[in-house]
Amino acid sequence: MSKFTNPTGGVNNFGAASVEGVAVRADFNLNLIFGGAKTKTVAAGAFHCGGGIISGMDVFLHEVITNVCDYSTILARFLSRCYTNWVMETVAMEHMASSAVDPEIEAMMEAGVHIGHIRSKRHPAMAPYLWGVRSNVEIIDITKTKEKLGAALDFLRQSAQGKKLFLFVGTRPSARELVARSAEALGMPYVNQRWIGGTLTNFKVIGKQIETLEKLESEIASGGFEKYTKKERMKKEADLERLRHNFDGLRRMKKLPDIVVIIDIAHDDLALREARRMNIPVVALVDTDTDPRLVTYPIPSNDNARPAIAYMLDRVEKAIADGQAALLSPESGGGEGAVTGAIANTAKDDKHLSNA
Description:
- The chain has helices spanning 16-33, 39-50, 52-66, 71-98, 103-111, 142-161, 173-186, 203-221, 230-247, 269-277, 306-327, 336-355, and strands at 4-5, 11-12, 115-118, 130-134, 137-140, 166-169, 190-191, 259-262, 282-286, 297-300.
- It is of the alpha/beta class.
- It has 3 domains: 4-101; 102-200 and 256-356, Rossmann fold, CATH 3.40.50; 202-251, Helix hairpin bin (Helix Hairpins, Orthogonal Bundle).
- The chain has a 5-stranded parallel β-sheet, sandwiched between helices. A 3-stranded antiparallel β-sheet has the order 3-5-4.
- Strand 1 and strand 2 form a beta hairpin.
- The model is unreliable at 1-56, 94-99 and 335-356 (pLDDT under 50).
């Protein structure tokens, strides 16, 4: 355990990261709720009152051990500090109870969307989306995140109504399972293991690899491997496993995607570069160490923590699902005519791809 020195001079033998994390969350949350010039004072009071008794007890024990003054004086200081912190905590809680809190912002806070990287990793282009720094950690402005997320979800919803094809990309270990789950729920292709160079820029070759995968699976299902020798069979099984690992999520991508959704543009930078080269719109999470100018619809957010990724993917999945439902809804004017138009657009895209 590491030591954390509190503002009063006492020493707490608690994990510094956990205590400072509480300070960051309390300060930022109160700033969103109250705002104005009194924010820092109230937030600071909320932080001190959270560990009021512990802080006061630290002072008490520290002065007893070092014999700074007599016991009556020490006890008076201890009780005074505890009472002061208790009053500040009560006032802060009353303000929080009486204030209207945005449930969407609260959900983002719970998911840790606002936590960025350390200040030394900040990308200059992310400055407009930052709220401040706490304990050398960049804090993302959740209000900006809400604004950008709304614009991205509107774009995804409208694109889904046009029967567009979405490609989900997330090869970071914390995002692999979540990306596969969301993409499969929507019937969309995804990459969650390793981005193969040329997936977009050399799509014809990738398509042939997918055809080979499906051919081998059909052959093994029909018992066709039995005609090979043991060595040949082992080689084909190894090829089948390799193809599944690299291209299993791309089976539904019969043409170039219309939109690419990327979880971490720093980790999957090759996917971003290929999408930009092919003029494919990109919707992506942008953390404090990335350049949001490279993304068509950037969403300022933590792109490392699993809860933050899960929250964002759930919102994206729901927006696309709503667009797909509206496509088939007669009430929204997305009946047979809209479906026919979407199919015609898809056929046009396929013809353009074949001519290329």
